[in-house]
Design a protein that fits this description.
The complex is a heterodimer of chains A (382) and B (139). Chain A contains 2 helices and 21 strands. In chain A, 2% of the residues lie in helices and 61% in strands. The N terminus of chain A is likely disordered. By secondary structure, chain A is an all-beta fold. Chain B has one domain: 3-Layer(aba) Sandwich (D-Maltodextrin-Binding Protein, domain 2). In chain B, 40% of the residues lie in helices and 21% in strands. In chain B, a hairpin with a 2-residue loop joins strand 2 and strand 3. The radius of gyration of chain B is 16 Å and the shape is globular. Chain B starts with a helix and ends with a strand. Classes of the chains: A mainly beta (382), B alpha/beta (139). At the A-B interface, strand 2, strand 4 and strand 6 of A face helix 4 of B.
Chain lengths: 382, 139
């Protein structure tokens, strides 16, 4: 099976003739199909509580289709439709929809619906085939529930010595339905801005990024049983057990790298999250991955860690110094270009002075939690 | 050819999977450059540079799975086909680039390079004639 991006002459596709010399359409797709199961005292784990104590496809499965239409050498339109598993269901969304204008050789301007550049891997977050794990380490990658925004950015590329350097500046806003610790939440982010610098060198890249926004949150829990667990407090509870918070300043800063030389592969990222008030904890988080390629096999080991750094509360109890640590052993097997199989075993431990359940879903007060997760998946791109 | 020589030659061909073609990077004769070093070829074929001497480059690739292709990328970038696919998937789905157009075998690449301004590809050195310009010989 040999799959290439299909390039169809647009004249053929749409019967148009203007600009046909340059114009072309390309279609590419990617996906991860898999199953995962959590073993432990607690029923659920994950940002949307997507991991449960039986094999389910939602925690690790998603698929995307991306079309790109090149109007001319400098102007293109890109759209990406993404189907993604969440708590007990699948959700379909337009993840990217933007126009790109290459103003000069080194300056690109983009406008539309774009990925929020919070993390090292933000823009390829769902393309499992492009990284070693089945999903990027949750300790860092669950810290920002917003994945996209509406607005624009500029990308400036230049060479700094041996480094191919990209500066990025973004402005925008978003209204998203996101999961915060198992509870679906309406989140509005205004006055969003972000900046990043990426140094690309022969064996990898290093990226420093910062995003900030003013956030309004409106949860509407339909029953006490749906009240959020973990590091989220119901402070200003409404009659229907909802929670409304307005005007919270939040920010996220991350420093990450990827490295690939000879048979060695490594990724690492450290991050800090700050949000006004005690409803959302301020956190520090980090992960480190080391992998070694042996022909088509790549065994890898990941350490992940996150810690609550302020006096955030859950049901009136401070969860300061609550920590989650995990170790993951995994293996990736490249069946053929465009197709990989992965298996992972993860041990997760959450604890803190007053009990801390982190991404685990526990009823009532927080308490220490630990569990193992087993995941299997197939990744493909075409 | 003497049949006595023919047999060992056939055996050599059949039993030496490591036997390699001599590959060269070629460009349309109108290209603004006459030679590239290995680093520049690598930058081009990993999508990091898109222009040569101010002229936009149209990169051409041989078909996936071909021996020439495996050898070319292994020697120039150090990456296997699977690693390259992973590399390009990140660029494609972040809107940061697209891989060279796949044209076919050495003969097909040469024909397209000869007829397309700005085209650059890699072919078996035996294909080279006056219709294209050699920019780099793989060691």
């Amino acid at each position: 099976m040999r799959m290439q991006g299909k390039r169809l002459p647009v004249a053929l596709l749409l019967g148009l003739s203007c600009g046909a010399a340059q114009a072309e359409f390309s279609l590419n797709g990617f996906g991860t199909l898999g199953v995962a199961e959590v073993h432990g005292d607690d029923r659920r784990y994950g940002l949307s509580g997507e991991y449960v104590d039986e094999l389910r496809t939602e925690p690790v499965s998603r698929a995307g289709l991306q079309g790109r239409y090149q109007f001319s050498d400098s102007l293109s339109a890109t759209g990406q439709l993404l189907v993604r598993g969440e708590r007990s269901r699948y959700d379909t969304d337009v993840e990217w929809a933007y126009l790109s204008y290459q103003a000069t050789d080194s300056l690109e301007l983009r406008a539309g619906r774009l990925r929020l550049p919070a993390f090292l891997l933000s823009e390829s977050l769902d393309v499992g085939y492009s990284y070693p794990w089945i999903r990027p380490p949750a300790e860092v990658y669950s810290q920002v529930p917003i994945s996209r925004y509406i607005g624009g950015d500029l990308l400036y590329n230049t060479a700094l010595g041996d480094y191919d350097t990209t500066f990025q500046l973004m402005l925008g806003q978003t209204d998203s339905d996101v999961f915060m610790n198992g509870a679906e939440t309406e989140m509005e982010a205004r006055d969003m801005w972000g900046a990043s610098i990426t140094l690309q060198y022969e064996y990898g890249r290093v990226r420093l990024g910062h995003v900030a926004a003013n956030i309004d949150v409106d949860t509407n829990f339909r029953a006490v049983a749906e009240m959020p667990p973990g590091n989220f407090v119901v402070g200003n509870a409404r009659d229907d057990f909802g929670l409304v918070l307005e005007g919270l300043d939040g920010s996220f800063t991350s420093l990450g790298y990827s490295y690939e030389r000879d048979n060695w592969v490594s990724y690492g990222e450290v991050a800090a999250r700050k949000v006004d008030g005690l409803n959302f904890p301020d956190t520090h988080s980090a992960f480190l991955t080391l992998g070694y390629r042996i022909d088509n096999w790549m065994p890898h080991l990941t350490w992940g860690w996150s810690e609550v750094t302020d006096d955030a509360q859950v049901n009136g109890v401070s969860i300061k110094d609550g920590e989650q640590t995990s170790w993951t052993v995994g293996v990736r097997y490249d069946v053929q270009p465009g197709l990989a199989v992965k298996a992972e075993y993860q041990m997760i431990d959450a604890d803190g002075p007053n009990g801390y359940s982190s991404l685990f879903e526990t009823a009532g007060l927080p308490r220490d939690a630990d569990a193992e997760i087993v995941s299997l998946a197939v990744d493909f791109v075409f | 050819m003497n049949p006595m020589i023919k047999i060992p030659l056939l055996l050599t061909l059949a039993f030496s999977p490591l036997s390699q073609a001599e590959l060269v990077v070629i460009a349309n004769p109108a290209a603004g450059v006459d030679a590239l070093d290995k680093g520049a070829v690598k930058q081009l074929f990993l999508g990091k540079t898109r222009k040569l001497a101010g002229q936009k480059v149209k990169l051409l690739d041989q078909v996936s799975g071909s021996a020439d292709r495996e050898q070319f990328y292994k020697q120039v970038t150090g990456k296997s086909s699977a690693q390259l696919k992973s590399y390009w998937s990140r660029l494609i789905f972040t809107g940061k680039g697209k891989p060279p157009e796949v044209v076919g075998d050495s003969a097909a690449v040469k024909a397209r390079v000869a007829g397309t301004a700005g085209a650059v590809g890699y072919v078996d050195a035996a294909q080279v004639d006056g219709s294209v310009k050699v920019l780099f010989r793989l060691p």
